[in-house]
TrEMBL record:
Key word Lyase present: yes
UniProt source species: Kitasatospora viridis
GO molecular function: lyase activity
Lineage of the species this protein comes from: Bacteria, Bacillati, Actinomycetota, Actinomycetes, Kitasatosporales
Transmembrane segments: none
InterPro entries attached to this UniProt entry: Pectin_lyas_fold (IPR012334), Pectin_lyase_fold/virulence (IPR011050), RHGA/B-epi-like_pectate_lyase (IPR024535), Serralysin-like_metalloprot_C (IPR011049)
Keywords: Lyase
Entry protein name: Pectate lyase-like protein
Domain of life of the source: Bacteria
Span of domain Rhamnogalacturonase A/B/Epimerase-like pectate lyase: 265-333
Keyword Transport attached: no
Length: 834
């Protein structure tokens, strides 16, 4: 279908001008377009360019949408131009000029006939001057009238109708809401079914809970939806008093105009909820959840709602309360907004979020939210167990914020696999969730993949504070467990890394953090603080409990900034302190604690045996006993002393690793050397054509620029092109070499011989400096005192020799050494890297 342009050409009085000449030009120019223009949208009838208005309309068709400029010359007047106009294909979203001056119509069947009128939507009609109609079948029929919404009608001057089937039929009248009708001058009807009966009257419909906040009204419309009427000072309903009943007349001025938007909030009270702390509100709550539109909110006003069965939250629906009692502990305190199961409650959780199959949803179950309320399980029977909130199967992107779960007979917050044992929740986000005195675990999470928990706490759980099984990709930040009946955090890692950042424990009955039987990933603990765990049922220590315990774990466990401190019960002033161990590990693959303070009643660092690799860093300090009452005790391992890095042996002997009294290569501006140059007391020449090897060890990756050696007596008659220095790695590969040294070696002194091609980056490892000379009299180089070859290379082989020789009759350095052919040397020559 061809693209179409149509607009009336009107004179200053608003009358159509016939027989005006029209030229269709290229956009931004005065050049006529080259495209063919047509008289209609389908036949081949060609229209000339220029042409004359037919009855005052400028109308033509093009083969394709385009942007043009139009020049119009009316009789007796100069040519005027319409700039950059779009010629568009017709359709629901097409935009056309209306039939009134400066009018516009948008949408299939839309008609704007009044001067300055705008019609938007299927079959919308705006026929009055400066009128506006928006919505399917909306009609603004009078001057300065406005109709917004399906089947709305504003038929009198200055009338406004907003909402489905709203009608304003009198001058300056306003109808807002489903089927609201304002039939009298300057009257206002607000709410479902509201109708005015007298001029200047403001009538309220039948909402059950109209609320005014800062100049805004919330009223109920059809299907439980909410209209939010936002108005400014002096605007519509701005002086309205809050109603005292469900319907009736309220005073106030209806002058001005406000902004009307839809807020999709649903109240369970609209569905019969009593919220009196006694009546069973389960049916009303579930009805509100079921009718709530996608992206909407079921709002619980401050009250206690009793339930007898689980509530199911559909996809993309929010269950929102007004307030959660985050720190509430007293049993006699009634929460501000709470779901409180009745003693007859039947089901496995107070609130359930289930997957698409279990919920019979038409779409993937995702994006549910629970916010700002308390789940109070004080009336639940001890058996069967009832969880607070349960996520089941493949549910994704659930958010839980500002939630208090207390005294439930099961777990507080729980995730479980589906009926097939395959799918679990993904991407759970929990923030400020507190579980108090759960009969089982505070948080019991099976495969909470890629989930994040921030500022969440379990306090006084009979089981574990946190139990995480296969929590791949999960992160816990600033989370806490206090006074748990078992472990503070029990972690069984699976696929994907797990991270605890800034998490704390306090007075766990068993281990503070226990990591068990994990496989396939890594557990990172950063800045965790574990306080007086291992309560041991009040016995005060013992039991083999630790702040951190890693038991039979195949995945790596890496901790830094770990603090384990001892203490007793709050009421105890002496004795009863715990834990027995600071860190305990047994039969585990890799456990590393790089820094921290470890305190314990018995052993701060306890190796239970069977570990493949158990590492403690240089900044780990141990303390036995209560903080500040007993001296810090040293244990085997690297540690930082006042002025050096030292190693404490099992027998308590301390040996310096880096002592400032020992001269190091860096003190000479060197990287590494074969031995202290102050210890070399001899010099000699080595055989012509034989490569002399000197081992140097790099303890860390370094960038090497020079090879350094010391010539004592220069040579003479040295053969040019046959005196070389090179550097080989431990496999015998040549990794760097210098230029020919025949001239340099004819004089004595230190020789800094640059590597050809510039510096070389070398990884940590063993390297051989290789010296090769040929000539009449060879130079002598500094070395240590001669010993036997076996003595100089004690306990080493040819492939690992510290000093050795290889080859004969050589004139250049080989690219590869036959390291199995190295002969141990008795001359410990000196060399260095710089």
């Amino acid at each position: 279908m061809r693209a179409h342009f149509s607009r009336p050409y009107l004179d200053s009085a608003g009358n159509r001008v016939p027989q005006a000449q029209v030229r269709i030009l290229e956009a931004g120019t005065n050049v006529q377009i080259s495209e063919t223009i047509y008289t209609d949208g389908s036949t081949g009838a060609v229209k000339t360019n220029p042409f004359f208005t037919n009855g005052g309309d400028v109308s033509f068709y093009l083969d394709a949408p385009s942007r043009v400029k139009i020049g119009i010359t009316s009789p007796g007047n100069p040519e005027e131009f319409w700039e950059d106009l779009d010629v568009t294909a017709p359709g629901l979203d097409s935009v056309h000029a209306g039939s009134g001056a400066n009018s516009m119509q948008v949408g299939s069947g839309a008609a704007a006939a009044g001067v300055g009128a705008t019609a938007t939507g299927v079959s919308a009609a705006a026929t009055g001057k400066d009128s506006a109609a928006a919505g399917r079948a909306a009609q603004a029929l009078a001057d300065v009238s406005s109709a917004y919404g399906a089947n709305t009608s504003a038929s009198a001057a200055g009338a406004t109708a907003v909402g489905a089937s709203a009608g304003a039929s009198a001058p300056s009248s306003t109808a807002l809401g489903f089927a609201a009708t304002a039939r009298h001058a300057s009257s206002t009807a607000v709410g479902a079914g509201a109708a005015t009966t007298a001029p200047g009257q403001v009538m309220l419909g039948t909402p059950t809970d109209m609320v005014e906040v800062a100049g805004s009204f919330v009223v109920r419309s059809a299907g439980g939806k909410r209209w939010l009427l936002q108005v400014s000072d002096g605007g519509l309903l701005a002086t309205q008093a809050a109603p005292t009943s469900d319907s009736g007349t309220a005073g106030g001025s209806a002058g001005g105009a406000g902004t009307v938007t839809v807020l999709r909030w649903v109240s369970p009270r609209d569905f019969g909820a009593k919220a009196d702390g006694v009546s069973d509100d389960t049916a009303a709550l579930q009805a509100a959840l079921n009718v709530c539109p996608k992206g909407g909110t079921v709002y619980l006003l401050p009250a206690v709602y009793r339930t007898s069965a689980p509530l199911y939250i559909p996809p993309s629906v929010t269950l929102l309360g007004s307030h959660a009692n985050i720190e509430q502990q007293a049993a006699d305190v009634v929460p501000a907004t709470a779901l409180r199961p009745l003693p007859i409650f039947s089901g496995n959780a107070v609130v359930r979020i289930v997957d698409q199959v279990m919920g019979s949803y038409s779409e993937l179950s995702r994006e549910q939210q629970i916010c700002d309320l308390t789940i109070d399980g004080r009336d639940l029977a001890a058996s069967p167990a009832v969880d607070g909130v349960q996520l089941a199967g493949n549910v994704q992107g659930v958010q839980v914020r500002g939630l208090n779960i207390q005294r439930v007979s099961g777990h507080g917050l729980r995730s479980v696999v589906d009926a097939f044992g395959a799918n679990t929740p993904i991407g759970l986000r929990a923030q400020r969730v507190v579980v108090y005195k759960a009969a089982l675990d505070g948080f019991n999470l099976a495969s909470p993949l890629n989930s994040t928990f921030v500022d969440c706490e379990s306090l006084g759980a009979t089981g574990n504070g946190w139990s995480l099984s296969n929590p791949g990709g999960a992160t816990l930040s600033a989370c806490r467990s206090g006074w748990s009946g078992k472990d503070g955090f029990l972690i069984a890692p699976g696929l994907g890394p797990v991270g605890l950042v800034g998490c704390t424990t306090d007075r766990s009955n068993q281990h503070g953090i226990r990591i068990v039987a994990g496989d396939g990933s890594v557990v990172n603990l950063s800045g965790c603080r574990l306080y007086r765990d291992g309560r041991n049922n009040g016995a005060g220590g013992g039991g083999g409990w630790a702040g951190l315990a890693v038991i039979s774990t195949t995945c790596p466990v890496v901790a830094d900034g770990l603090t384990v401190t001892v203490g007793a019960d709050d009421s105890s002033t002496s004795g009863g302190i715990s834990p027995q161990y600071g860190v305990h590990a047994d039969h585990s693959r890799y456990v590393s604690v790089s820094s921290g303070l470890l305190a314990a009643t018995d052993t701060p660092w306890h190796d239970g045996g069977g570990n493949e690799l158990l590492l403690r860093g240089p900044n780990v300090t141990d303390q036995k006993g209560r903080s500040g009452t007993e001296a810090v005790r040293t244990v085997p391992g690297l540690r930082v002393t006042t002025s050096s890095l030292a190693f404490t042996s099992a027998g308590g002997l301390v040996s310096d690793v880096l002592n400032p009294d020992v001269v190091l290569p860096s003190d000479h501006g060197l990287i590494a050397w074969s031995q202290d140059p102050g210890s070399v007391t001899a010099n000699s020449a080595f055989g012509a054509g034989v490569v002399q090897l000197i081992k140097i060890v790099l303890r860390a990756p370094r960038t090497v620029t020079n090879i350094v050696a010391q010539v004592v007596t220069g040579g003479s008659g040295l053969t040019t092109g046959q005196c070389w220095v090179g550097l080989y790695d431990a496999t015998g590969n040549l990794v760097g070499s210098t230029a020919d040294q025949a001239t340099s070696w004819q004089s004595g002194g230190p020789k800094f011989m640059a590597l050809v091609g510039g510096p070389v980056v070398l990884p940590a490892g063993s390297y051989w400096v290789a010296l090769l000379a040929n000539g009449t009299t060879l130079p002598t180089f500094t070395r240590g005192s001669s010993v036997s070859a076996a003595g100089a290379n004690i306990n080493l082989t040819a492939a690992t020799a510290r000093w050795g020789t290889v080859g004969s009759g050589l004139q250049t350095l080989p690219s590869n050494l036959a390291i199995s052919s190295i002969v141990l040397s008795s001359s410990p020559y000196w060399a260095a890297l710089g």
